[in-house]
Amino acid sequence: MKRTISSILVLLTLAIPMVFATGAKEAAVNEKSIRIAEQVPGLITPGVWDGQAFSLNSSIYEYLAEINAETGELDPVLATSWETNDGTDWTFHLRKGVKFQDGSDFTAKDVKFTIERTQDPAVGHLKKADFEVVKSIDTPDDYTMVIHLSEARPTFVYQMTDYNMPILSSEYDYANLGETKPMGTGPYILQQMIPKESAILVRNPNYWAEGLPKIDKILIYFVADIDASISMLESDRVDVVPFVTPVIKNRLEGNDTISVISPYQEQRFISMAVDRKPFDDNRVRLALKYSMDPQVIAKSVAKMDLNDGVFYNETPIMNALAEYKDRPLRTRDVAKAKALLAEAGYPNGVSVPLYYASDHPFSKELAQTVKELASEGGFTIELKGYTRDVYLSQYWLNVPLSITGWGGRIDPSMLLSLAFKGGAPWNESHLNNPQINALINKISTEPNADVRTGYYHQLQDVFYEDGPLINVQVPYLVAINKRVDGYRQPLTMLPQYKYMDVR
After folding, report:
1. 443 and 374 together in one domain
2. pTM, to two decimals
3. Range of the domain at 249
Protein backbone atom coordinates (compact mmCIF):
# COMPACT_ATOMS: atom_id res chain seq x y z
CA MET A 1 0.00 0.00 0.00
CA LYS A 2 2.82 2.42 0.87
CA ARG A 3 4.47 1.74 -2.47
CA THR A 4 1.16 2.39 -4.29
CA ILE A 5 0.61 5.71 -2.51
CA SER A 6 4.18 6.79 -3.21
CA SER A 7 3.78 5.92 -6.85
CA ILE A 8 0.62 7.98 -7.10
CA LEU A 9 2.39 10.96 -5.52
CA VAL A 10 5.27 10.67 -7.94
CA LEU A 11 2.92 10.49 -10.92
CA LEU A 12 0.94 13.45 -9.55
CA THR A 13 3.96 15.69 -9.12
CA LEU A 14 5.30 14.73 -12.52
CA ALA A 15 1.97 15.43 -14.19
CA ILE A 16 1.16 18.79 -12.62
CA PRO A 17 3.72 20.91 -14.54
CA MET A 18 2.34 19.55 -17.81
CA VAL A 19 -0.84 21.57 -17.19
CA PHE A 20 0.85 24.64 -18.60
CA ALA A 21 2.40 22.97 -21.61
CA THR A 22 -0.53 23.62 -23.94
CA GLY A 23 -1.27 27.13 -22.67
CA ALA A 24 2.17 28.70 -22.68
CA LYS A 25 5.82 28.01 -22.18
CA GLU A 26 6.74 28.20 -18.49
CA ALA A 27 9.10 31.06 -19.19
CA ALA A 28 10.63 32.73 -22.17
CA VAL A 29 14.39 33.14 -22.24
CA ASN A 30 14.42 36.61 -20.62
CA GLU A 31 11.14 36.28 -18.75
CA LYS A 32 10.97 36.25 -14.96
CA SER A 33 8.45 33.85 -13.50
CA ILE A 34 7.42 32.56 -10.09
CA ARG A 35 5.87 29.13 -9.65
CA ILE A 36 3.55 28.61 -6.69
CA ALA A 37 1.92 25.47 -5.29
CA GLU A 38 -1.32 26.59 -3.64
CA GLN A 39 -4.20 24.86 -1.93
CA VAL A 40 -7.16 23.90 -4.10
CA PRO A 41 -9.58 26.85 -3.97
CA GLY A 42 -13.30 26.81 -3.35
CA LEU A 43 -15.17 29.94 -4.40
CA ILE A 44 -12.87 32.76 -5.52
CA THR A 45 -15.31 35.60 -6.26
CA PRO A 46 -14.76 38.46 -3.77
CA GLY A 47 -17.53 38.62 -1.22
CA VAL A 48 -17.98 34.85 -1.07
CA TRP A 49 -14.29 33.94 -1.21
CA ASP A 50 -13.53 31.35 1.48
CA GLY A 51 -9.96 32.47 2.13
CA GLN A 52 -8.08 30.05 -0.09
CA ALA A 53 -6.30 30.92 -3.36
CA PHE A 54 -4.55 33.89 -1.77
CA SER A 55 -1.90 34.02 -4.49
CA LEU A 56 -4.53 34.21 -7.21
CA ASN A 57 -6.86 36.84 -5.77
CA SER A 58 -4.26 39.09 -4.17
CA SER A 59 -2.52 39.42 -7.54
CA ILE A 60 -5.63 40.16 -9.63
CA TYR A 61 -7.48 42.47 -7.22
CA GLU A 62 -6.52 45.49 -5.12
CA TYR A 63 -7.77 47.34 -2.07
CA LEU A 64 -8.13 50.95 -1.01
CA ALA A 65 -5.24 50.37 1.40
CA GLU A 66 -2.91 47.55 2.36
CA ILE A 67 -0.96 46.62 5.46
CA ASN A 68 2.77 47.22 5.18
CA ALA A 69 4.32 43.82 5.85
CA GLU A 70 7.38 45.38 7.46
CA THR A 71 5.86 48.13 9.64
CA GLY A 72 2.28 46.96 10.17
CA GLU A 73 1.04 50.41 9.15
CA LEU A 74 -1.62 51.19 6.56
CA ASP A 75 -0.23 52.10 3.14
CA PRO A 76 -2.35 53.80 0.43
CA VAL A 77 -3.19 51.77 -2.67
CA LEU A 78 -6.32 52.74 -4.62
CA ALA A 79 -6.98 55.44 -2.05
CA THR A 80 -4.22 58.01 -1.69
CA SER A 81 -5.48 59.33 1.65
CA TRP A 82 -8.49 59.31 3.96
CA GLU A 83 -9.84 61.20 6.95
CA THR A 84 -12.73 61.09 9.38
CA ASN A 85 -14.29 63.35 11.99
CA ASP A 86 -15.44 61.11 14.82
CA GLY A 87 -15.63 57.89 12.81
CA THR A 88 -19.10 58.63 11.46
CA ASP A 89 -18.18 60.30 8.16
CA TRP A 90 -15.20 59.01 6.16
CA THR A 91 -13.70 60.79 3.15
CA PHE A 92 -11.49 58.84 0.77
CA HIS A 93 -9.37 60.49 -1.91
CA LEU A 94 -8.85 58.05 -4.76
CA ARG A 95 -5.91 57.46 -7.05
CA LYS A 96 -6.19 58.90 -10.54
CA GLY A 97 -5.04 57.20 -13.72
CA VAL A 98 -5.86 53.64 -12.60
CA LYS A 99 -7.54 51.30 -15.05
CA PHE A 100 -9.25 47.99 -14.57
CA GLN A 101 -7.81 45.11 -16.53
CA ASP A 102 -10.67 45.31 -19.04
CA GLY A 103 -9.59 48.88 -19.91
CA SER A 104 -12.27 50.77 -17.98
CA ASP A 105 -11.32 53.64 -15.66
CA PHE A 106 -11.28 53.22 -11.89
CA THR A 107 -13.44 55.90 -10.23
CA ALA A 108 -15.47 56.54 -7.11
CA LYS A 109 -18.49 54.78 -8.60
CA ASP A 110 -16.55 51.51 -8.46
CA VAL A 111 -15.82 51.89 -4.76
CA LYS A 112 -19.46 52.79 -4.14
CA PHE A 113 -20.53 49.71 -6.11
CA THR A 114 -18.16 47.50 -4.13
CA ILE A 115 -19.52 48.67 -0.81
CA GLU A 116 -23.19 48.60 -1.84
CA ARG A 117 -22.67 45.09 -3.21
CA THR A 118 -22.13 43.87 0.36
CA GLN A 119 -25.87 44.37 0.95
CA ASP A 120 -27.05 42.61 -2.22
CA PRO A 121 -28.97 39.52 -1.06
CA ALA A 122 -28.17 37.80 -4.35
CA VAL A 123 -24.46 37.88 -3.49
CA GLY A 124 -24.62 36.51 0.05
CA HIS A 125 -21.67 38.72 0.92
CA LEU A 126 -19.59 37.65 3.91
CA LYS A 127 -19.07 41.28 4.94
CA LYS A 128 -22.76 42.16 4.91
CA ALA A 129 -23.04 42.65 8.67
CA ASP A 130 -19.94 44.86 8.85
CA PHE A 131 -21.21 47.21 6.13
CA GLU A 132 -24.82 47.47 7.28
CA VAL A 133 -23.63 50.53 9.19
CA VAL A 134 -23.17 52.41 5.88
CA LYS A 135 -26.07 54.88 5.66
CA SER A 136 -25.17 56.58 2.39
CA ILE A 137 -22.29 57.26 0.01
CA ASP A 138 -21.60 60.55 -1.77
CA THR A 139 -19.32 60.84 -4.79
CA PRO A 140 -18.82 64.61 -5.30
CA ASP A 141 -16.39 63.85 -8.12
CA ASP A 142 -14.78 60.84 -9.76
CA TYR A 143 -11.97 60.68 -7.25
CA THR A 144 -13.61 61.63 -3.98
CA MET A 145 -15.92 59.46 -1.93
CA VAL A 146 -17.66 60.29 1.35
CA ILE A 147 -19.12 57.42 3.35
CA HIS A 148 -21.74 58.31 5.96
CA LEU A 149 -22.20 55.72 8.72
CA SER A 150 -25.23 55.37 10.95
CA GLU A 151 -22.94 55.25 13.98
CA ALA A 152 -19.28 55.86 14.68
CA ARG A 153 -16.75 53.31 13.43
CA PRO A 154 -13.34 54.74 14.38
CA THR A 155 -11.46 51.85 12.75
CA PHE A 156 -13.71 51.56 9.68
CA VAL A 157 -10.82 51.96 7.22
CA TYR A 158 -9.49 48.55 8.28
CA GLN A 159 -12.67 46.95 6.96
CA MET A 160 -11.44 47.94 3.51
CA THR A 161 -8.36 45.70 3.96
CA ASP A 162 -10.38 42.52 4.52
CA TYR A 163 -9.59 39.95 1.83
CA ASN A 164 -13.23 39.93 0.71
CA MET A 165 -13.21 43.70 0.08
CA PRO A 166 -11.10 44.30 -3.04
CA ILE A 167 -12.44 47.06 -5.27
CA LEU A 168 -14.57 45.70 -8.12
CA SER A 169 -15.65 47.32 -11.37
CA SER A 170 -19.19 48.63 -11.45
CA GLU A 171 -19.34 47.64 -15.14
CA TYR A 172 -18.19 44.00 -14.88
CA ASP A 173 -20.43 40.94 -14.50
CA TYR A 174 -18.93 39.27 -11.44
CA ALA A 175 -22.02 37.14 -10.90
CA ASN A 176 -21.32 35.23 -14.11
CA LEU A 177 -17.59 35.82 -14.62
CA GLY A 178 -16.15 36.05 -11.11
CA GLU A 179 -15.35 32.35 -10.87
CA THR A 180 -13.94 31.88 -14.38
CA LYS A 181 -12.56 35.28 -15.42
CA PRO A 182 -11.72 37.27 -12.28
CA MET A 183 -10.87 40.91 -13.11
CA GLY A 184 -9.60 43.81 -11.03
CA THR A 185 -6.97 46.56 -11.03
CA GLY A 186 -4.15 44.40 -9.69
CA PRO A 187 -0.58 43.93 -10.92
CA TYR A 188 -1.38 40.64 -12.68
CA ILE A 189 -3.99 39.60 -15.23
CA LEU A 190 -5.46 36.11 -15.45
CA GLN A 191 -4.33 34.58 -18.74
CA GLN A 192 -5.55 31.04 -18.24
CA MET A 193 -7.26 29.04 -15.50
CA ILE A 194 -8.13 25.38 -15.31
CA PRO A 195 -10.49 25.06 -12.32
CA LYS A 196 -9.02 23.13 -9.39
CA GLU A 197 -5.80 22.56 -11.37
CA SER A 198 -3.84 25.66 -12.34
CA ALA A 199 -3.73 29.32 -13.30
CA ILE A 200 -1.41 31.54 -15.30
CA LEU A 201 -1.11 35.22 -14.38
CA VAL A 202 0.80 37.70 -16.52
CA ARG A 203 2.08 41.19 -15.77
CA ASN A 204 -0.51 43.95 -16.13
CA PRO A 205 1.07 46.27 -18.75
CA ASN A 206 -1.11 49.18 -17.59
CA TYR A 207 -0.45 48.82 -13.87
CA TRP A 208 -0.43 52.22 -12.18
CA ALA A 209 2.63 51.74 -9.91
CA GLU A 210 5.86 52.51 -11.76
CA GLY A 211 8.40 49.67 -11.63
CA LEU A 212 5.88 47.12 -10.38
CA PRO A 213 5.37 44.27 -10.61
CA LYS A 214 8.89 42.94 -10.94
CA ILE A 215 7.91 39.47 -12.16
CA ASP A 216 6.53 38.84 -15.65
CA LYS A 217 4.46 35.76 -14.91
CA ILE A 218 3.03 33.81 -12.00
CA LEU A 219 2.29 30.12 -12.52
CA ILE A 220 -0.01 28.68 -9.88
CA TYR A 221 -0.52 24.95 -9.38
CA PHE A 222 -3.50 23.96 -7.22
CA VAL A 223 -2.24 20.95 -5.27
CA ALA A 224 -4.30 19.29 -2.55
CA ASP A 225 -1.44 17.29 -1.05
CA ILE A 226 1.25 19.22 0.84
CA ASP A 227 3.80 16.43 0.34
CA ALA A 228 3.30 16.63 -3.42
CA SER A 229 3.84 20.41 -3.24
CA ILE A 230 7.07 19.97 -1.29
CA SER A 231 8.31 17.33 -3.73
CA MET A 232 7.78 19.88 -6.50
CA LEU A 233 9.72 22.48 -4.50
CA GLU A 234 12.60 20.12 -3.82
CA SER A 235 12.83 19.15 -7.48
CA ASP A 236 12.77 22.84 -8.58
CA ARG A 237 9.34 22.70 -10.19
CA VAL A 238 7.83 25.36 -7.93
CA ASP A 239 9.35 28.27 -5.99
CA VAL A 240 6.81 28.95 -3.22
CA VAL A 241 4.77 26.59 -1.03
CA PRO A 242 2.56 28.12 1.71
CA PHE A 243 1.01 26.30 4.70
CA VAL A 244 4.11 24.24 5.50
CA THR A 245 4.15 22.03 8.60
CA PRO A 246 6.92 21.94 11.25
CA VAL A 247 7.81 18.40 10.17
CA ILE A 248 8.37 19.62 6.62
CA LYS A 249 10.29 22.64 7.93
CA ASN A 250 12.69 20.33 9.73
CA ARG A 251 12.99 18.16 6.63
CA LEU A 252 13.99 21.17 4.54
CA GLU A 253 16.59 22.53 6.94
CA GLY A 254 19.40 20.67 5.20
CA ASN A 255 18.43 21.95 1.75
CA ASP A 256 20.72 24.82 0.74
CA THR A 257 18.33 26.04 -1.97
CA ILE A 258 15.21 26.41 0.19
CA SER A 259 14.33 28.62 3.15
CA VAL A 260 11.29 28.47 5.42
CA ILE A 261 9.94 31.77 6.75
CA SER A 262 7.13 32.73 9.14
CA PRO A 263 5.52 36.06 8.19
CA TYR A 264 3.06 35.95 11.10
CA GLN A 265 1.11 33.73 13.50
CA GLU A 266 -2.07 31.90 12.53
CA GLN A 267 -4.76 30.73 14.89
CA ARG A 268 -6.28 27.32 15.47
CA PHE A 269 -9.60 27.76 17.23
CA ILE A 270 -10.82 24.79 19.26
CA SER A 271 -14.50 25.76 19.23
CA MET A 272 -17.36 24.33 21.25
CA ALA A 273 -20.92 24.88 19.98
CA VAL A 274 -22.81 26.41 22.91
CA ASP A 275 -26.21 25.38 21.59
CA ARG A 276 -25.39 21.67 21.37
CA LYS A 277 -24.82 19.05 24.02
CA PRO A 278 -22.59 18.64 25.86
CA PHE A 279 -21.14 22.15 25.39
CA ASP A 280 -24.41 23.97 26.09
CA ASP A 281 -23.28 23.69 29.73
CA ASN A 282 -20.37 25.97 30.66
CA ARG A 283 -19.15 23.40 33.18
CA VAL A 284 -18.40 21.05 30.29
CA ARG A 285 -16.57 23.82 28.44
CA LEU A 286 -14.51 24.53 31.55
CA ALA A 287 -13.81 20.81 31.99
CA LEU A 288 -12.28 20.66 28.51
CA LYS A 289 -10.17 23.73 29.28
CA TYR A 290 -8.94 22.25 32.58
CA SER A 291 -7.96 19.09 30.69
CA MET A 292 -5.57 20.98 28.43
CA ASP A 293 -1.85 21.54 29.00
CA PRO A 294 -0.55 24.49 26.91
CA GLN A 295 3.10 23.44 27.15
CA VAL A 296 2.32 19.90 26.03
CA ILE A 297 0.27 21.30 23.15
CA ALA A 298 3.13 23.54 22.03
CA LYS A 299 5.63 20.69 22.11
CA SER A 300 3.36 18.07 20.54
CA VAL A 301 1.86 20.23 17.84
CA ALA A 302 4.75 22.43 16.73
CA LYS A 303 7.87 21.02 18.44
CA MET A 304 8.34 24.43 20.06
CA ASP A 305 8.26 25.84 23.56
CA LEU A 306 5.18 27.74 24.64
CA ASN A 307 5.54 31.50 23.99
CA ASP A 308 8.47 30.83 21.66
CA GLY A 309 6.66 30.41 18.35
CA VAL A 310 3.44 28.95 19.80
CA PHE A 311 0.99 30.88 21.98
CA TYR A 312 -2.13 29.83 23.88
CA ASN A 313 -5.13 31.58 25.38
CA GLU A 314 -8.89 31.18 25.71
CA THR A 315 -10.04 34.26 23.78
CA PRO A 316 -10.27 35.39 20.13
CA ILE A 317 -7.52 38.00 20.61
CA MET A 318 -4.03 37.02 19.47
CA ASN A 319 -1.25 37.37 22.04
CA ALA A 320 0.75 39.59 19.66
CA LEU A 321 -1.96 42.27 19.39
CA ALA A 322 -2.02 45.40 21.52
CA GLU A 323 -5.59 44.62 22.57
CA TYR A 324 -4.60 41.30 24.17
CA LYS A 325 -5.01 41.02 27.94
CA ASP A 326 -2.27 38.95 29.53
CA ARG A 327 -3.50 36.77 32.35
CA PRO A 328 -2.18 33.55 33.94
CA LEU A 329 -2.88 30.41 31.98
CA ARG A 330 -5.36 27.98 33.47
CA THR A 331 -3.46 25.26 35.36
CA ARG A 332 -4.23 21.76 34.17
CA ASP A 333 -6.45 20.04 36.74
CA VAL A 334 -7.80 16.65 35.66
CA ALA A 335 -9.64 16.08 38.96
CA LYS A 336 -11.44 19.39 38.59
CA ALA A 337 -12.35 18.55 35.00
CA LYS A 338 -13.96 15.29 36.07
CA ALA A 339 -15.77 17.00 38.94
CA LEU A 340 -17.18 19.64 36.58
CA LEU A 341 -18.44 16.93 34.22
CA ALA A 342 -20.11 15.15 37.12
CA GLU A 343 -21.78 18.39 38.23
CA ALA A 344 -23.05 18.88 34.69
CA GLY A 345 -24.67 15.43 34.75
CA TYR A 346 -21.88 13.40 33.16
CA PRO A 347 -20.39 11.37 36.04
CA ASN A 348 -19.11 8.77 33.58
CA GLY A 349 -17.65 11.33 31.19
CA VAL A 350 -18.82 12.39 27.75
CA SER A 351 -18.26 11.23 24.19
CA VAL A 352 -18.02 13.76 21.39
CA PRO A 353 -16.64 13.87 17.83
CA LEU A 354 -13.94 16.43 16.96
CA TYR A 355 -13.98 17.69 13.36
CA TYR A 356 -10.94 19.28 11.70
CA ALA A 357 -9.17 19.79 8.37
CA SER A 358 -6.67 16.95 8.19
CA ASP A 359 -4.55 18.60 5.48
CA HIS A 360 -4.23 21.98 7.21
CA PRO A 361 -0.89 22.47 9.00
CA PHE A 362 -0.92 21.80 12.75
CA SER A 363 -4.60 20.77 12.82
CA LYS A 364 -4.06 17.01 12.71
CA GLU A 365 -1.41 17.12 15.42
CA LEU A 366 -3.54 19.44 17.53
CA ALA A 367 -6.59 17.19 17.21
CA GLN A 368 -4.60 14.15 18.36
CA THR A 369 -3.11 16.06 21.30
CA VAL A 370 -6.51 17.41 22.38
CA LYS A 371 -7.93 13.89 22.25
CA GLU A 372 -5.16 12.49 24.44
CA LEU A 373 -5.21 15.30 27.00
CA ALA A 374 -9.01 15.38 27.19
CA SER A 375 -9.26 11.63 27.74
CA GLU A 376 -7.75 11.98 31.23
CA GLY A 377 -10.36 14.61 32.06
CA GLY A 378 -13.30 12.36 31.15
CA PHE A 379 -13.73 13.09 27.42
CA THR A 380 -13.88 10.33 24.84
CA ILE A 381 -13.17 12.08 21.56
CA GLU A 382 -13.61 10.54 18.13
CA LEU A 383 -11.46 12.26 15.54
CA LYS A 384 -13.17 13.24 12.29
CA GLY A 385 -10.54 14.56 9.89
CA TYR A 386 -11.38 15.63 6.33
CA THR A 387 -9.55 17.54 3.65
CA ARG A 388 -9.99 21.27 4.12
CA ASP A 389 -12.41 21.75 1.23
CA VAL A 390 -14.68 18.96 2.51
CA TYR A 391 -14.39 20.11 6.11
CA LEU A 392 -15.35 23.71 5.28
CA SER A 393 -18.17 22.84 2.90
CA GLN A 394 -19.82 19.96 4.79
CA TYR A 395 -18.99 20.10 8.50
CA TRP A 396 -17.70 23.47 9.65
CA LEU A 397 -20.32 25.59 11.44
CA ASN A 398 -22.49 22.49 11.96
CA VAL A 399 -20.66 20.37 14.53
CA PRO A 400 -20.35 20.42 18.34
CA LEU A 401 -16.54 20.48 18.53
CA SER A 402 -14.12 21.62 15.84
CA ILE A 403 -10.63 22.86 15.08
CA THR A 404 -10.49 25.57 12.42
CA GLY A 405 -7.59 27.56 11.05
CA TRP A 406 -8.18 31.32 11.35
CA GLY A 407 -6.00 34.12 10.09
CA GLY A 408 -5.50 37.13 12.30
CA ARG A 409 -7.04 40.53 11.69
CA ILE A 410 -5.04 43.72 12.05
CA ASP A 411 -8.17 45.19 13.67
CA PRO A 412 -9.57 42.39 15.88
CA SER A 413 -13.06 43.91 15.91
CA MET A 414 -13.39 42.61 12.35
CA LEU A 415 -12.95 39.04 13.57
CA LEU A 416 -15.32 39.56 16.50
CA SER A 417 -18.12 40.74 14.21
CA LEU A 418 -17.48 37.91 11.76
CA ALA A 419 -17.25 35.00 14.18
CA PHE A 420 -18.49 35.76 17.69
CA LYS A 421 -21.45 38.12 17.50
CA GLY A 422 -24.92 36.62 17.49
CA GLY A 423 -25.96 35.84 13.90
CA ALA A 424 -22.46 36.34 12.49
CA PRO A 425 -21.86 34.37 9.25
CA TRP A 426 -18.81 32.43 10.53
CA ASN A 427 -20.02 31.90 14.10
CA GLU A 428 -18.76 28.33 14.51
CA SER A 429 -19.44 28.23 18.28
CA HIS A 430 -23.01 29.53 17.73
CA LEU A 431 -22.51 32.23 20.34
CA ASN A 432 -25.30 34.69 21.03
CA ASN A 433 -24.22 36.01 24.40
CA PRO A 434 -25.84 39.38 25.21
CA GLN A 435 -22.82 40.54 27.20
CA ILE A 436 -20.41 39.63 24.38
CA ASN A 437 -22.70 41.20 21.76
CA ALA A 438 -22.83 44.43 23.76
CA LEU A 439 -19.05 44.54 24.19
CA ILE A 440 -18.48 43.94 20.47
CA ASN A 441 -20.80 46.85 19.72
CA LYS A 442 -18.94 49.08 22.18
CA ILE A 443 -15.58 48.09 20.71
CA SER A 444 -16.80 48.87 17.19
CA THR A 445 -18.12 52.34 18.06
CA GLU A 446 -15.72 53.68 20.73
CA PRO A 447 -13.46 56.44 19.32
CA ASN A 448 -11.12 56.57 22.31
CA ALA A 449 -8.39 53.95 21.88
CA ASP A 450 -7.76 53.51 25.62
CA VAL A 451 -11.45 53.07 26.40
CA ARG A 452 -11.74 50.66 23.47
CA THR A 453 -8.86 48.59 24.84
CA GLY A 454 -10.70 48.43 28.16
CA TYR A 455 -13.70 46.92 26.41
CA TYR A 456 -11.41 44.38 24.75
CA HIS A 457 -10.12 43.40 28.18
CA GLN A 458 -13.65 42.98 29.51
CA LEU A 459 -14.49 40.82 26.53
CA GLN A 460 -11.52 38.56 27.19
CA ASP A 461 -12.56 38.19 30.84
CA VAL A 462 -15.97 36.94 29.70
CA PHE A 463 -14.40 34.48 27.31
CA TYR A 464 -12.05 33.20 30.00
CA GLU A 465 -14.90 32.44 32.39
CA ASP A 466 -17.73 31.53 30.04
CA GLY A 467 -16.40 31.26 26.51
CA PRO A 468 -16.44 28.36 24.05
CA LEU A 469 -12.91 28.80 22.71
CA ILE A 470 -9.31 27.71 23.05
CA ASN A 471 -6.96 29.69 20.81
CA VAL A 472 -3.69 27.99 19.82
CA GLN A 473 -1.50 30.32 17.79
CA VAL A 474 1.03 28.68 15.50
CA PRO A 475 3.56 30.04 12.99
CA TYR A 476 2.36 30.42 9.42
CA LEU A 477 5.19 28.82 7.48
CA VAL A 478 6.11 29.38 3.84
CA ALA A 479 8.81 27.41 2.01
CA ILE A 480 10.60 29.44 -0.65
CA ASN A 481 13.34 28.81 -3.17
CA LYS A 482 16.26 31.06 -2.19
CA ARG A 483 16.34 32.57 -5.66
CA VAL A 484 13.17 34.47 -4.69
CA ASP A 485 13.59 37.93 -3.14
CA GLY A 486 11.11 40.26 -1.48
CA TYR A 487 8.39 37.88 -0.31
CA ARG A 488 5.84 39.96 1.64
CA GLN A 489 2.70 38.76 3.41
CA PRO A 490 1.15 40.83 6.22
CA LEU A 491 -1.43 39.77 8.79
CA THR A 492 -4.23 40.32 6.26
CA MET A 493 -2.97 37.02 4.73
CA LEU A 494 -2.70 38.62 1.29
CA PRO A 495 0.73 37.95 -0.27
CA GLN A 496 2.09 41.01 -2.05
CA TYR A 497 3.72 39.44 -5.09
CA LYS A 498 4.12 42.74 -6.89
CA TYR A 499 7.24 43.36 -4.77
CA MET A 500 8.74 39.94 -5.39
CA ASP A 501 11.75 39.37 -7.65
CA VAL A 502 14.03 36.49 -8.61
CA ARG A 503 17.79 36.27 -8.77
Report:
1. yes
2. 0.83
3. 2-60+175-263+477-502
- Distance, in Å, from the CA atom of 279 to the CA atom of 175, rounded to the nearest integer, reads 39
Alpha helices, H only, 253-396: 282-291, 294-302, 334-343, 363-376, 388-390
Q: Are residues 334 and 483 in the same domain?
A: no
- Count the domains in the chain: 3
Asked if residue 466 lies in contact with residue 433, where contact means CB atoms within 8 angstroms, the answer is yes
One domain for residues 348 and 452: yes
Separation CA 460–CA 171 (nearest Å): 44
Are residues 311 and 194 part of one domain?
no
Give which of 57, 40, 271, 288 is closest to 163, Cα–Cα: 57
Cα separation, 204 vs 348, in Å, equals: 64
- Please tell me whether residue 148 adopts helix, strand or coil conformation: strand
pLDDT digits (tens, 9 = 90+) for 350-367: 999 999 999 888 999 999
Cα torsion angle, 428, 401, 243, 359, sign: negative
* Torsion of the alpha carbons at 117, 123, 124 and 130, rounded to the nearest 10: -10
Return d(Cα 195, Cα 200) in angstroms, integer: 12
